[in-house]
Design brief:
With about 190 residues, the chain is of the alpha+beta class. It is built from five helices and five strands, in the order H-E-H-H-E-E-E-E-H-H.
Length: about 190
Amino acid sequence: MGRGVVVATWMVGMTLLALAGPAAAASPHDLDNDGLREALRTNHALASYVRRNGLPDLAETRFLSDRPPWDRDEVAVYYFDAHKEISFARAVILGDPSIHLERLERRLSDAEIEQLKPRAQHYGQCPKTQVASAEPSDPTARAEAAASRAEAAAGRVEAAADAADRAADHAEAVAAKAESRFHKSLKK
């Protein structure tokens, strides 16, 4: 009888550990400055979005998938003023995490924002998001400010075009690699 109790206890313990693993993996984890910086470095779609829209109020990782082609986690960013949640993920194709995309964009309610605010991180102020507190009253100054904003917007468009060129080059390289591997597999 003593041995049966030990085996039963062991089985219950292993079952609890097995159930706790997925539960822990499924819970979101807030990103600090270093975590957000790493996510921006590894996910080009996320980095591009943050470049255009500034740093989020909160960023987290959460479990996405336990099987390919998706990475294990996705990154969600929250913009309280815009009432937005956007999540980004990567897919691995031919062993290369080459697909970076926006998986979800949804509007947040005021109640959801209030619930998220205590978790908000202070990632610092992104220079692109700093805006003058008031528009100048002088028409010349307003025109100069508008020209500066237009120039900044043109710079962002140019950067986006460069990113699109790089993405197209990368897509061509991945396609060529896939084609090469396919032809090698036929030559067995």
